[in-house]
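Bench notes, afternoon.
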Amino acid sequence: MKVFSACLLSIWLLCAIGASDLRAGEESETITITVGSKKFTESVVLGEIIRQKALAAGAQAEHRRELGGTRVLFNALLRGDIDVYPEYSGTIRQEILAGRALADEAAVQAALADQGIQMSKALGFNNTYALGMREETAEQLGITTISDLRQYPDLSFGFSNEFMDRADGWPGLRAHYSLPQSDVKGLDHDLAYRGLEAGSIQLIDMYSTDAEISYYKLRSLIDDQAYFPAYQALLLYRSDLTSRAPAVTKALLDLQGAISEKAMVAMNAKAKLDRTPESQVAADFLAAQFGLEVDAAAESKLDAFLRHSGEHIMMVLISLTAAILLAIPLGIIAAKQRRAGQLILGVVGVIQTVPSLALLVFMIPLLGIGTAPAICALFLYSLLPIVRNTYAGLHDISPAIRESAEALGLPPLK
């Protein structure tokens, strides 16, 4: 037990050192405004616009790009890990405040204010969900509306992973339209377009401002039963931002009504199709719309590779060291004590089956965003193979070898 307790103490010290080093690094940068964005191009571009607007207003700003989906970003905003991020009105109603009977925008603002969050007015464009098919496929099958899909139960669908799980995504859409399709895959948003082009799937979810709609010559199916609500782009920001950085807040609110749908589609096309860095796309927009000149120097691919490699090595070293310190004693206990072994192997086995995204969503409210939850997730996923191999190595020693060891004066560990 003393050895086991010492191992646990060592693990907590390692995690604490990793987390404190991270926080110390963040504090030394004295960042005033932290911007978040979701894992798709438009959100990253908007995040860059927000960051550069904050810089032009005299603040120090950092953009934590592609953090994840809605729940990850909103939880980070609640915790104060980020100060502002771009969101959509439909997502707020259907996902963040799902289940509440909110009559109008004022009720939505009040519900958010109760959690210390403020909502801007619309930025100027509606990026609602849509379902898309290749034009020739839709023409051949005679499909123009979502209701028409009921006639073709064998069609293969490929939806983004977030759309698969959202309350206003596939589960609700399937029930609303009584769609019979069962071949439905969860894919990365960009991969879904490629799958559609290759013919491996026949239908995908899209955002109405996606540049790929015209590039791939897709037909957007008519939402004939008005399932999808309006998704007006807007900003969610912490209430204390107004008092902490009033000039920055005013600069960010200047974006209200300033981004048209045409402008957003053009920016998405420039970033995704022309491969222009999102920071440069944002800088070009701000220069044209507001006359702002902001340094949009983008991180080189080599610098990004080296930075991410260093972060990865550091996280692996901390998480694997902690896992070894805990898992080997657990494997020894599992081999020595049958009942305890069944419990230990069962617990680490269950942990291994938890999806990584679900595990991170669970940890972010407790540990925040960044390195700390990633280290803990890697630590937990490392337990099973080490525990199981330690257990198997000890358990599978033949009785003859055990007897020989005892005869040589090597009794089993008590």
